[in-house]
Amino acid sequence: MRVTNLRNGRTVVLRVIDRGPYGRNHRKGCIIDVSTAAARRLRFVHDGLTFVRVQVLAPDDADPRGQ
To answer: Which residues on adjacent β-strands are paired with residue 13?
Structure first.
């Protein structure tokens, strides 16, 4: 998936490895949790939350694992 920070336009392509947010990390209106590394690349790690656009991408046919 492609995640774009709507406040600064920075974009990162991520792989979904979980379905969340759940439990104590769930916040009202929160649709996705990203890794700290992804938050750094999107430049919102210190803010904690930001507005994003999430785009689903087609699977990569070149994935050697066939996933």
So the answer is: 2
Tell me the per-residue pLDDT of 12-30, one tens digit each, with 9 for 90 and over.
998 888 766 666 656 667 7
Long-range contacts of 49-57 (CB under 8 A, 24+ apart): 50/5, 50/6, 50/7, 51/5, 51/6, 51/7, 52/3, 52/4, 52/5, 52/6, 53/3, 53/4, 53/6, 54/1, 54/2, 54/3, 55/1, 55/2, 55/3, 55/4, 56/1, 57/1, 57/2, 57/13
41 three-state secondary structure:
helix
